[in-house]
């Protein structure tokens, strides 16, 4: 980090239009070509900073009550779970997981959101909910049919996607119901194979 902070002004000055991610990439390239002797002062400084951070953290935590420590642990666990969920969502998106089916109201809302009454999103949502409730059954039926069609779309796309996940060895991404179905199918195939073997032995 010290090396980055030291080199960043010069890199930015030489390349005013450079993007932040490219700044780090360029400094990383500079770091890689340094000799062990040149890296040593920065590494030693980093170790000193880390040691100071640990001591400061211990001092801070020693002043907290058990309830505060417990609350910190809960918040840390929540942050980790949130980061894990975000990483999982990004991975599923990159793997092309189909979008979940929309409800009849969601379809209605997406079609009429722009012209909905209200200047804020919550206000528009409220006016759309009121409009939805005032629709006649035959008017709602149009959106309910679209929602049913979207369910079929989702079911078909998920079948293809999960088949592909099995092919590339990502069984961990399959839904529980799919895994149960896969295991039942595997058990039926195994039972059929055993039956054929037994019949062959008897003949």
Rg is 29 Å
Order of H and E elements:
HHHHHHHH
Number of strands: 0
Report the sheet with the most strands, covering strand number, pairing sense and barrel closure: none
Distance between the termini: 76 Å
> What would the CATH topology of the domain at 1-50 be?
DNA Binding (I), subunit A
* Oligomeric form: single chain
Q: What's the CATH architecture name of the domain at 1-50?
A: Orthogonal Bundle
Number of helices: 8
Q: Helix amount, in percent?
A: over 70%
CATH class descriptor name of the domain at 1-50: Mainly Alpha
Strand content: under 5%
The CATH superfamily of the domain at 1-50 is known as: High mobility group box domain
* Class of secondary structure makeup: mainly alpha
**Coarse shape:** extended
| Low confidence ranges | none
Domain HMG box: 1-61, 98-162
DNA-binding region: 1-61, 98-162
Protein name: Transcription factor A, mitochondrial
GO cellular component, one term: nucleus
Record the SSE blueprint.
Elements: H1 2-14, H2 20-32, H3 36-62, H4 66-94, H5 104-112, H6 121-134, H7 137-167, H8 176-202
Short structural description:
One of its GO terms (molecular function) is DNA binding. It holds the Pfam family HMG_box. The protein is mainly α and 203 residues long.
